[in-house]
Write a structure and sequence with these properties.
Two copies of one chain form a homodimer. Chain A is mainly α and about 500 residues long. The first copy, chain A, has one domain. Helices cover about 60% and strands about 5% of the residues of chain A. Chain A is built from 19 helices and five strands. The first copy, chain A, has helices at about 1-10, 15-20, 25-35, 45, 60-65, 75-80, 110-120, 185-200, 220-240, 240-245, 250-255, 260-270, 290-330, 330-350, 360-385, 385-400, 405-420, 420-425, 430-490; strands at about 135, 140-145, 150-160, 165-175, 180-185. In chain A, strands 3-4-5 form a three-stranded antiparallel β-sheet. Chain A has a two-stranded antiparallel ribbon with strand order 1-2. The longest helix of chain A has about 60 residues, at about 430-490. The first copy, chain A, is elongated, with a radius of gyration of 27 Å. The interface between A and B is large, with 66 and 66 residues. Chains A, B: It comes from Sphaerodactylus townsendi.
């Protein structure tokens, strides 16, 4: 029992797998809670290669700093206390032990389950001001893409301090490409945004985790560079998403004019009640309702695909990580040894006092140096190609780790609708209620399909780009080595 | 005590290092005997990479077979019994435990020491019929090279049997390029030749060991091929040596006409008394006697050079062996994993039901297959380049392992001559005896210099050839990989 639990504890997919058998909701919910500490960015297993990770520091200045106004977060989300960590907000996500967790939406036993019912049975369903349109395009249901897109450049990390220098932190400059205006944010602000996005959109849209929090080491500059690169990737991802990028909370994060506006916006976002499954109430697909069979099939297909891709991505990360270690560790050391051995041999040869062998000895020395150069090339190469392949797969692992929750929400809704006839028969709900439920679960399915179409189009673009880059860089790498070897060869006397 | 002895037991150089300090001959002689089981072809340390070595077999058909006439070997050489192995001839050289030993010339306590005196003090010094001329050429003392050289092609290994099929063995066909006539020989015949050459020339000329004897495995064909390749290298080496190739024993080995002639020649060779240091009696350098200071300097220089080169060669063999293991083991496995991971990912992608991604998925699949091809290329490459580098270094390790004995003989002679004045003063020898000693030690020095010049010219040629080949093959290898990657890259759709 215990060992099987342990082996699945790290896999967010376990809950969903279980959900397809057994007695449905209760079993799933229970499994969920067990697995709520599952971590998709576990650095021990799939974390980034050692090159980027210094030893974990006990303290992250950028984080330990309290919020200015800790009471501004609505009580309904923050009453939960993580029993193990006493983290007041249950928000502790990444830590040095690799026991990071996502915002535990499913840890609110009284919330998630009624959440589905609340959305499916609300009468009337209040339509929020902030709409999320779903249309039917060439590829099926899709989000509406804004006519002009923008990116956000994360740059210029600066050390700031407060409390008379007692607390220091790193502040990044964020500049939107459409407005060309800049705002400054610390890591903990990103983390706040991530949390808001997850709470608001997490049932419909995968929100990948931010880079790990507490991994900070001796090479501070290297660490800051790496974190900035990942924050940049995360921001670009968010800017690329038509729903996220257009959302009020996201826009406010990028476009506040002063401290006061930022705080007002922050409080407003934290009071937003259109969160969790209620986000679907903002959607109005312009299309006829789907039938239940199709809805269930689509949901299962998404589950199968994302689970399979999660496995594939993890496999690639595992082998990539192994390859990274070899390329930056034993392999260049070996080339260095070959280089040294050749140079030593030439040195010995030069003591022979035999005439006319100096050309050979110089050539052997150069060949030895060439192998030392190859050692450096080999050691540096992963940063030029494997790094990007790894980063992309990390990002996707982050996305994919969100799907068990998304699919869980959809399956929960589907189960509810399946019970509808019984509820009507026992007069617990009306026929109209049942019709509403069908319409709303259909909306959820449209949303899921729209999101999957967005996901697929991004996936195709991203993997095409990153594998092309990888192959191009690898080819160049081998060409460079071959060229150096030919140069070394050219120095040998012809006998 | 014991541990320091153990650590030096494998290094033939220990004896020589010791000889330069302490009380000379006696100490050296003692150390020698301790180290007589030292092995320069120890497969555990510097043996050929695993690819060639199957697990050792308990029995080597090619060897266990007794000689037809075991009594034909002169008693003076064969009375010694190895106390550990009870090998009647003390000839056991290579075995599966890596405790191979050379013909233990120094294991005859009553022989080696008088040997030097016997040569230095013989009156008159009988000049054998078989002369070994030493001349002074452009590079100093040198052997006379025959006007026409020849090689000997080892080919066509055939299984033979005798005793009504109870004993079977492998016979190789040896064809001299000058006569174009062939003779057949079994491994044990090569071994007999090696033994004769070592006994006859071992004080003047390094005779590298034959390939290991008892390393035979399940892949018999592979083993025979490897052994033949190494016998070929050994024969070519011997044919290239002006003294060895012209010697009666060597010529007889290659040119006997029938079984009877072979046996007669064999018996004659075994009765040859011009062996050990007495081989120098066959030499008549056409040059004035060298002075003792020069003789000693030359001898020390040879000692330093060959010791340093031995270290250099061993270093290259160690790193080469390590590299061989990586290239044939973990590295291709990793490329295979990368290939499989890419193909798996493409397989998952193809289940997305999203339109228009089949080009990408095919390209990723092909990229995956390319990495599988790269895995094979990587695994096969060492046979195309590193193999030859290793073989050449093995050969030189064999040569270099002979030098402690050669230098030991020279140093022994030098010590004797240094004692000459005292011996003259105590009337143990005459002034004429002393003059003879000086002349003879000078002859030894000319011989050593001639052999070193032969050694250097071969070394320069061999290392130039093999490193060129290595670099050329390595460059081609990397070019092939780059080309394959570019092909894979070309299949990706441009977006």
């Amino acid at each position: 029992m215990d060992s099987s639990h342990a082996s699945s504890a790290n896999d967010p997919w376990t809950s969903w797998d279980n959900a397809t058998t057994g007695d449905g909701w209760a079993a799933r919910q229970e499994t969920r809670q067990k697995n709520s500490s599952s971590n998709n960015w576990d650095p021990a297993t799939f974390g980034h290669p050692q090159a980027y990770q210094g030893p974990a520091a006990a303290d992250d200045d950028d984080w330990d700093d309290d919020w200015d106004d800790p009471k501004s977060t609505p009580a309904s989300y923050l009453e939960y206390k993580d029993p193990e960590t006493s983290d007041p907000a249950g928000l502790q996500r990444g830590n040095s032990r690799g026991a990071a967790m996502k915002i535990p939406l499913n840890k609110f036993p009284g919330f998630a389950k009624p959440g589905v019912e609340q959305y499916l049975l609300a009468k009337p369903l209040v339509k929020p001001k902030e709409k999320i349109p779903v249309i039917i395009g060439d590829y099926g249901p899709m989000w509406i893409y804004p006519t002009s897109t923008f990116d956000c450049v994360v740059a210029d990390p600066k050390k700031g301090s407060k409390m008379y220098g007692l607390k220091s932190y790193i502040e990044y400059q964020l500049t939107c490409t459409n407005t060309n205006r800049s705002v400054n944010h610390r890591y903990k602000h990103f983390d706040w945004l991530y949390e808001r996005l997850l709470i608001k959109f997490g049932s419909a849209i995968p929100i990948p985790s931010l880079p790990d929090k507490q991994v900070t080491g001796r090479f501070e500059e290297e660490f800051i560079k790496m974190r900035m690169e990942r924050l940049q990737a995360w921001m670009t991802r968010m800017c690329r998403h038509p729903v996220i990028s257009e959302s009020e909370v996201f826009q406010q994060f990028l476009n506040f004019r002063d401290e006061k506006e930022w705080k007002t916006g922050k409080r407003k976002a934290e009071k937003d009640e259109i969160v969790g499954v209620m986000v679907f109430s903002a959607m109005e697909p312009e299309a006829p309702d789907l039938d239940m069979i199709e809805i269930e099939q689509k949901c299962d297909a998404v589950g199968r695909f994302t689970k399979a891709m999660d496995d594939g991505v993890k496999e690639l990360l595992t082998v990539g990580n192994e390859h990274w270690k070899r390329c930056t560790g034993p392999l260049p050391k070996e080339y260095q040894k070959i280089g040294k051995a050749l140079q030593n041999l030439a040195l010995v040869f030069s003591t022979s006092a035999y005439q006319g062998e100096s050309d050979l000895n110089e050539a052997i020395t150069e060949a030895g140096k060439t192998y030392e150069e190859i050692a450096s090339l080999v050691a540096e190469q992963p940063r030029k190609d494997l790094h990007f392949l790894m980063e992309t797969n990390h990002e996707y692992k982050g996305f994919l780790g969100c799907f068990p929750d998304i699919i869980g929400a959809h399956k929960g809704a589907i189960e509810k609708v399946k019970e509808a006839d019984k509820l009507v028969a026992t007069s617990k709900i009306t026929s109209q209620d049942k019709q509403n439920m069908l319409k709303r679960v259909s909306t959820m399915s449209y949303a899921l399909q729209a999101e999957m179409n967005h996901f697929h189009s991004n996936r195709i673009y991203d993997y095409n780009s990153v594998i092309r880059l990888y192959l191009e860089q690898q080819a160049q790498f081998y060409e460079t080595i071959a060229e150096k070897l030919r140069q070394a060869l050219g120095r040998f006397p012809v006998m």
